[in-house]
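Final report, Chapter 2: Outcomes

The project's central promise was a pipeline that accepts a single protein chain and returns its three-dimensional structure in a standardized token representation, suitable for archiving and comparison. That pipeline is now operational. To close this chapter, we reproduce one record exactly as it appears in the project archive, with the input sequence first and the structure output second.
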Amino acid sequence: DQIAACAYSTDVAGRVTREAAAQTGLAEGTPVICGTGDSTSEAISVGLTEPGTAFFQYGSSMFYYYCVDRMVQDYISSGGNGSVKGGKVFTIPGTFCLGDGTNAAGTLTRWVRDTFYGEELEMERKGGKNAYAVMAGEAGEIQPGSEGLMILPYIYGERSPIQDPLATGMIFGLKGSHTRKHINRAALEAVGYSTLQHLMLFREMGLPPHTLITAGGGTKNNVWMQIICDMTGMPLHIPETFQCSSYGDAMLAALGAGCLKDFHQLKEKLPEGRIIGPDRENHEFYQRNYPIYRDLYLNNRELMHRMHMDKE
């Protein structure tokens, strides 16, 4: 008897009371919807409104929601691509979603910045160019594959898709000819390979997405987004910067209040943003090299765990 009744996110849960109106300035009687979580709101704000659409958010970590048309059980790949946790009912009536996240994305690029771009960071503090902008420019100077350098992004262990808190990062293929530019590019590619690994899992499950949408601070780095796009081999939808959780809340409120008819109309009202397309040659290159990324973890997992045990 202490648990709230279940309701859809867009259901009206009540109305602004006289007391609340006096405190907030909102009109008394304004309908208030049930609402949802911040990540879900952001996903709605960028167009995650129908099955077959996958949303990847690149912040300090990478978080994803994948809207599907049926309940999905826990899945473990037989090809070494990791695992996916079972799905759950999604905000949109009649749909379900897969959702999880990694432990590093922006935190990996921040490690690169703090380790190799200290001078640029100091100049930024003094009013100079943003250090991340410098890094994006330098990453764009390096060819796909970082001239044989590959990084595993597990510097804080890993959640999805390998679910291994004892996993560690790795810089593989390092040669004397490599510079910070190569490490910088390889870090961006590491997150790209992780994104591709998730798509490989979805395809194994018989759930290949037809639309990819991205959001988060990582979208400011055009080189990074092109890497993601080339990795996946699919057009990448990048929304406007103001499309965030609060924007999604407003769209859901408009739907709940009857200003929008349904989620289809909600999507039609969203800004177009921009779409980038993959370079087929780069995509084929990354496809050939993906098994190296996958096997670097599989072949070294036991050693990673042994090193952890030795520390204890």
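Archive annotation: The CA atoms of residues 166 and 306 lie 9 Å apart.
This record, like all others produced under the grant, will remain available to the consortium after the project formally closes.
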